C-alpha cells in the first residue's frame, strides 16, 4: 500500500497516535495564556535542550545537507553549519529571554519603545517570517517521503516514461567532461538542465501528504499548547537522532558490498578513493557557487544577528523555569544539532557515492537512498525514517505555530478586543496557530525551491534585528530610530524591489538589468583516483565513437593512471547579478528577469562597480553585508540625533532595569 509494507505503516500510525495523545493529555493543564503559549514557564534543562534542538532541526536539515553536498561537495555541509561559530553566544543571550519576563517578542518592542503599534507590526512581520521557515520543512519532507515510495518503471505512464528517458539522458551528458562534448551535446545539456526532467515518481500524492501533516500538527499543538509541543519534542528529538544515524551504517555496509571491504575504515577509505578529490574541498570547490569562505562568513554574521531577534527563540527559551535552564537548554540543544549535522554530512557523502547518479533532483537524494538501503529489509525501517522526518518537521512546526499564535493573539488581537476571558484568548490562539500552518502549506503548493526559501528566511530578519540588539545594548536607541530602521529596511530591501518590476514591467527585459556574471571555465589540477581513471576511459571511448567531422576541434582525452596529476575543466554557469531567481526566457523567447531585483547592487553598478566580473558568491556577499549593516547604521544615527519624550525615556529605563 502506497509503496510501503505493513510494518512501515504500523510504525507511522503508532508514532502519530502517541503524539496526538500527548496533545490531548496536555490540554487538561491549560488554565491561562501563559500555560498555552509558554507552558506555564515550568520546563527544566532536559525539556529545554530538546525544545531548542527540535525547533532548530526541521525535516529540511538532513535532506538539505544531502542536497547541497550533491551540488557542492563537502562544502555543502555549510548549509546547516552557518551558525556554528555563533553557538557560544547563546550562553550569553539565553538568560536574556527569561529575564525579560515577557510573553512574546512583540512585548519586547512594546515595552522597550513604549509602542503597542510597534509590537503589533513586529508580530505581523515575524509571523510571515516563521511561516516561510515552516515551508522549508514542508518542501523537504514531501520531496523526501515521496521518493521513499517510488513507482517501479513498469508502473509509469507514457508521459512519465518519456520524461524518465530525458532524465537518463541528462544524467549521461552531465557525467562527461565539458571539453569533450560536441556543440550539439552542449546545447542539449543546457536545454535538459533548464527542463530538469524527473527520474523518480511516487505512489503518494504530495498534496495529500502535506495536508495530513497539517492535520496532525494542528491536532496536538492546538489542543495542548507549548507543553504538548515540548513533551512531544523530547520524543521527536530521539527520532531526529535516529534520522541522523540510521542511514550511515547501512550506507557504509553497501559501500563495502559494492566496492569491497570488511570494516568501517575500509568503507571510509573507499569513500575517499572513489569520490573525486574536488568533492572534499571544504572551501573553494569549483562546483561550489554558493559556499565560498567569504559568503559563509557574511551569511554567518547575518544569521547570528537575525536569529537572536527571532520570535521563536524567545518562546522556546522564555518557557524555562529559571535563567540557568534557559541558558543550558538553548546552548546545548543547539550544540546537539551541530553534532548531528556532522553525521548528516558524512552520510551525505556516502549516499552521493552510492546514488548520486540515480536522481537528477538532489532534493530527492536522501529519500532515494532511504528506500534503496532500508526498503528491501522489510523491517519497518522505511516507516521509522518517514516517522523521523515527520518528527523533525513537527518539532519545528509546533513551536512556529504557537509562536505566531502568541504574537497575533497577544500583540494584535488582544489590544483590539479587550476584556475577554482567558479561555477566549486561548481559543483565539488556537485558531491563529492553525491558520499559520495552513498558510505555510498553501505557499508550498506554489513554491518548492528549497535553497531560495532558506536564503529568503536568513535575510528577512534584518528588518527587526537592529531594533532588538540596539534596544538591549544601546541605551539611547529610541522609537523614532527603530521606526526609521524598520521602514527603510523593509522598503528598500523588500517592498520596492518586489513591486517595481510589477509596476514597471519593462524593467524585467531591460538589457542593463539583465547583467550576468561572466561565464568562465575553471581549470583545476588533481591527483587521479580510480574513479578518475574509469571516467577517463569512458571519455576516450566516447571520443572514439564520434564521427571525424564532430571529432575535429575536440582534443583527444589522454589516458590516466592512478596517482598521476591531471587537469579538469569546470564551466561555471552565468548567474544573474540583479535578479534573485535569475534570467529566463519568457513565452516570447525574450530574456526576462525573475524574482526580486536587488536595488543595492543596481546602485553599486551605477556608481561604477563592475559586478559582472565578480564571482556570483562575491556579489551575494556584498549584498548580505549591506543588508546587515545599514539597519544598525540608520537606527544609531536617528537615535543619536533625535530627542525622546519623558514617557518613552521612563519606559526604557524601567525596561533596562530587568
Share of β-strand residues:
under 5%
- What is the CA-based Rg, rounded? 26 Å
CATH class of the largest domain: Mainly Alpha
CATH-assigned homologous superfamily of the largest domain: Sodium/glucose cotransporter
**How many beta-strand segments?**
4
What fold name stands as the CATH topology of the largest domain? Sodium/glucose cotransporter
Mean pLDDT: 80
Number of domains as seen in the coordinates: 2
CATH architecture name of the largest domain = Up-down Bundle
The proportion of residues forming helix, as a percent range, comes to 55-70%
- In N-to-C order, the SSE pattern is HHHHHHHHHHHHHHHHHHHHHEHHEEEHHH
Largest sheet: 2 strands, antiparallel
Account of the 3D structure:
The protein is mainly α. It has 2 domains: 363 residues, Sodium/glucose cotransporter, CATH 1.20.1730; 143 residues, no CATH class. The chain is 67% helix and 3% strand. It has 26 helices and 4 strands. The chain has a two-stranded antiparallel sheet with strand order 1-2. Strands 3-4 form a two-stranded antiparallel ribbon. A hairpin with a 5-residue loop joins β3 and β4. The protein is globular, with a radius of gyration of 26 Å. The protein starts with 5 loop residues before the first helix and ends with a helix. The mean pLDDT is 80.
Amino acid at each position: 500500500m502506497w509503496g510501503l509494507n505493513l510494518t512501515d505503516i504500523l510504525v507511522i500510525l503508532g508514532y502519530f497516535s502517541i503524539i496526538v495523545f500527548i496533545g490531548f493529555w496536555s490540554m487538561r493543564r491549560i488554565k491561562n495564556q501563559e500555560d498555552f503559549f509558554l507552558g506555564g514557564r515550568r520546563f527544566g534543562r532536559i525539556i529545554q535542550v530538546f525544545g531548542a534542538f527540535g525547533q532548530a532541526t526541521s525535516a529540511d536539515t538532513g535532506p538539505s545537507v544531502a542536497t547541497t553536498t550533491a551540488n557542492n561537495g563537502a562544502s555543502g555541509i555549510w548549509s546547516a553549519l552557518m551558525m556554528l561559530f555563533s553557538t557560544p553566544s547563546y550562553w550569553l543571550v539565553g538568560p536574556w529571554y527569561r529575564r525579560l519576563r515577557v510573553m512574546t517578542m512583540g512585548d519586547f518592542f512594546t515595552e522597550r519603545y513604549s509602542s503597542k503599534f510597534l509590537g503589533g507590526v513586529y508580530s505581523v512581520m515575524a509571523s510571515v517570517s516563521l511561516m516561510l521557515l515552516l515551508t522549508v520543512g514542508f518542501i523537504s519532507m514531501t520531496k523526501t517521503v515521496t521518493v521513499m515510495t517510488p513507482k517501479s518503471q513498469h508502473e509509469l505512464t507514457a508521459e512519465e516514461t518519456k520524461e524518465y528517458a530525458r532524465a537518463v539522458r541528462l544524467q549521461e551528458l552531465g557525467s562527461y567532461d565539458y571539453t569533450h562534448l560536441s556543440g550539439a551535446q552542449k546545447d542539449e545539456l543546457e536545454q535538459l538542465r533548464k527542463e530538469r526532467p524527473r527520474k523518480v515518481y511516487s505512489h503518494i500524492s504530495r498534496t495529500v501528504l502535506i495536508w495530513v501533516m497539517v492535520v496532525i500538527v494542528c491536532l496536538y499543538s492546538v489542543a495542548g499548547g507549548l507543553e504538548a509541543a515540548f513533551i512531544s519534542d523530547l520524543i521527536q528529538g530521539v527520532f531526529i537522532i535516529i534520522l541522523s544515524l540510521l542511514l550511515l551504517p547501512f550506507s557504509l555496509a553497501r559501500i563495502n558490498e559494492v566496492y569491497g571491504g570488511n570494516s568501517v575504515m575500509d568503507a571510509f577509505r573507499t569513500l575517499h578513493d572513489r569520490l573525486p578529490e574536488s568533492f572534499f574541498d571544504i572551501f573553494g570547490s569549483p562546483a561550489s557557487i554558493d559556499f565560498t569562505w567569504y559568503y559563509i562568513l557574511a551569511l554567518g554574521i547575518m544569521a547570528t544577528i537575525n536569529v537572536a531577534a527571532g520570535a521563536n527563540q524567545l518562546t522556546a527559551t522564555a518557557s524555562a523555569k529559571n535563567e540557568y535552564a534557559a541558558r543550558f537548554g538553548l546552548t546545548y540543544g543547539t550544540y546537539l544539532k551541530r553534532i548531528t549535522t556532522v553525521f548528516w554530512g558524512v552520510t551525505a557523502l556516502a549516499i552521493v557515492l552510492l546514488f548520486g547518479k540515480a536522481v537528477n533532483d538532489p532534493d530527492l537524494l536522501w529519500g532515494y537512498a532511504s528506500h534503496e538501503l532500508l526498503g528491501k529489509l522489510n523491517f519497518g525501517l522505511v516507516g521509522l525514517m518517514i516517522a523521523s522526518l515527520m518528527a523533525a518537521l513537527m518539532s519545528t512546526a509546533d513551536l512556529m505555530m504557537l509562536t505566531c499564535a502568541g504574537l497575533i493573539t497577544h500583540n494584535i488581537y488582544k489590544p483590539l478586543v479587550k476584556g475577554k476571558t482567558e479561555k477566549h484568548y486561548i481559543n483565539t490562539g488556537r485558531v491563529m496557530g492553525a491558520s499559520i500552518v495552513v498558510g505555510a502549506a498553501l505557499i508550498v503548493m506554489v513554491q518548492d525551491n528549497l535553497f531560495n526559501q532558506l536564503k529568503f528566511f536568513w535575510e528577512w530578519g534584518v528588518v527587526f534585528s537592529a531594533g532588538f540588539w540596539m534596544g538591549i545594548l544601546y541605551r539611547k536607541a529610541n522609537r523614532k530610530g527603530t521606526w526609521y530602521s524598520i521602514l527603510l529596511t523593509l522598503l528598500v530591501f523588500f517592498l520596492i524591489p518586489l513591486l517595481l518590476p510589477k509596476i514597471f514591467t519593462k524593467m524585467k527585459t531591460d538589457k542593463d538589468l539583465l547583467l550576468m556574471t561572466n561565464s568562465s571555465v575553471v581549470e583545476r589540477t588533481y591527483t587521479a583516483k580510480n574513479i578518475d581513471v574509469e571516467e577517463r576511459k569512458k571519455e576516450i571511448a566516447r571520443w572514439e565513437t564520434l564521427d571525424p567531422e564532430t571529432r575535429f576541434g575536440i582534443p583527444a582525452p589522454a589516458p590516466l593512471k592512478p596517482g598521476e596529476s591531471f587537469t579538469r575543466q569546470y564551466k561555471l554557469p552565468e548567474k544573474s547579478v540583479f535578479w534573485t531567481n535569475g534570467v529566463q526566457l519568457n513565452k516570447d523567447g525574450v530574456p526576462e528577469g525573475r524574482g526580486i531585483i536587488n536595488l543595492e547592487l543596481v546602485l553599486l553598478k551605477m556608481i561604477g562597480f563592475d559586478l559582472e566580473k565578480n564571482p556570483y558568491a562575491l556579489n551575494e556577499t556584498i549584498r548580505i553585508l549591506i543588508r546587515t549593516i545599514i539597519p544598525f547604521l540608520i537606527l544609531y544615527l536617528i537615535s543619536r540625533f533625535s530627542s525622546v519624550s519623558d514617557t518613552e525615556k521612563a519606559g526604557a529605563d524601567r525596561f533596562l532595569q530587568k
